[in-house]
Structures are given as C-alpha cells and as structure tokens.
Amino acid sequence: MGAIRTLIPIVQKVLPLLDGNVALAVANLLVPRLQAPTVDMRPVEDAVAAMRAELTGVHEGITAHETALSRMGEQLESLKDSLERSAANQKELADDLHRVQKRITVLAVAGLILLVASIAANAVLLVRVGQILH
C-alpha cells in the first residue's frame, strides 16, 4: 500500500508520455513535487506525555490503595480472630457462671433447710425447757 502511494505521483507525471507529450512529462519530472504541509505534532506529543505522567500517578495511587486495602484486610482478619477468641472466652465464663450459680443455689437451699431445722430444734428445746420449768 505504501509503495502504491509512493508510485502514484510518479505515474501521474509520466502519463503524458502515453499521449506523446514528452515535453510535459519531462517538465513534470523536473518540477519539484509539492510537499504536503507539515503538521506540528508537538502539542499532541506534549498531551500524550502529560497523559502518561498522569497515568503513572494514577497507577501509583492504585498501588498505594491496593497496599492499604491489603493492610486493612489483614487488620480485619486479626480483629475477626480476636473477636472469635473473645466470644469463646465469654462462653466459657458464662458456662462457669452457670455452674457457680447452681452450686450457690444448692448451698442456699441447704443453708435454708439447716436454718429451718435449727429454728425447729430451738422451738422444740424452748417448749421442753418451758415444760420443765413449769
């Protein structure tokens, strides 16, 4: 494709030879080719360089965010582990408290029975002493 584009202007200059017009063909070959106007690509190149710099900054920001997110994930994982340990400890404490509550209830009932028995024994002794003294 590039070769065809290069040859087309030359073929256009040589075509008058087919008509027998040698002078025009020679004149076409000797006249310098008009060059296409040059396009100043400097602004585009500057814009591309600025975009590359911004892209580098964005990439660094993304890397920093990924690092921060991974640290946050590790912290959340350690927090989860500590919460699980704390929950297990609280369950053990609740079980221990329940056992202690049962023991205290048994002791309180036994103490109440002993107190009632003691009051009954004191009442019986008081009635006997009253009968003996009368």
Question: What topology does this entry show?
Answer:
Layout: H1 2-14, H2 22-30, H3 42-133
Q: Specify the overall morphology.
A: rod-shaped
Q: Which residues sit in consecutive blocks of at least 5 with pLDDT less than 50?
A: none
Number of strands: 0
Query: How many domain modules?
Result: 2
Instruction: Characterize the main sheet.
Output: none
What class do helices, strands and sheet pairing give?
mainly alpha
What oligomeric arrangement do these chains adopt? single chain
Helix percentage range: over 70%
Written as H for each helix and E for each strand, in order along the chain, the element string is HHH
Total DSSP helices = 3
Question: Short description, anyone?
Answer:
With 134 residues, the protein is mainly α.
Structural commentary:
This protein has 134 residues and is mainly α. The chain folds into two domains: 1-36, no CATH class; 37-133. 85% of the residues lie in helices and 0% in strands. The protein is rod-shaped, with a radius of gyration of 54 Å.
Features:
134 residues, mainly alpha, rod-shaped
